[in-house]
Design brief:
Layout (H helix, E strand, L loop, with lengths): L2 H25 L9 H22 L9 H4 L13 H7 L15
Helix pairs in contact: 1-2
InterPro entries: DUF6221
Length: about 110
């Protein structure tokens, strides 16, 4: 697994932990937002993390010759850690986080 994929997986882990904490705060009455607003946000956040994880799994072999984008000839060169535009797009929400490399932008 290359550095870019490790970075993406770590960001998803961070997002999930933040969502778990937000859900816990809402359930225990610690949240300062309107009732149910935090729960709805957390539910959507969990769904978004699941979506990103599934896309990352589907595209894990792109750029190595056996991914779905390889058959469409829509991949980056083998030495490019991103693999394909889909993985590069998955990284866009994390451009402000420590460790994101500008060369990973689509």
């Amino acid at each position: 697994m290359n550095r870019f994929v490790r970075f993406l997986r770590r960001q998803l882990d961070i997002d999930l932990e933040l969502l778990r904490q937000a859900r816990h705060d809402e359930e225990t009455g610690k949240a300062t937002a309107q009732p149910n607003a935090g729960v709805l946000t957390a539910i959507r956040g969990f769904r978004e993390c699941e979506l990103k994880t599934r896309l990352l799994t589907i595209h894990q072999h792109c750029g190595a010759g056996s991914g779905p984008c390889d058959t469409l000839e829509d991949t980056y060169p083998r030495e490019d850690e991103r693999g394909c535009p889909t993985k590069a797009f998955l990284g866009l929400p994390y451009t402000d986080r420590p460790g994101y490399q500008p060369r990973w932008r689509p």
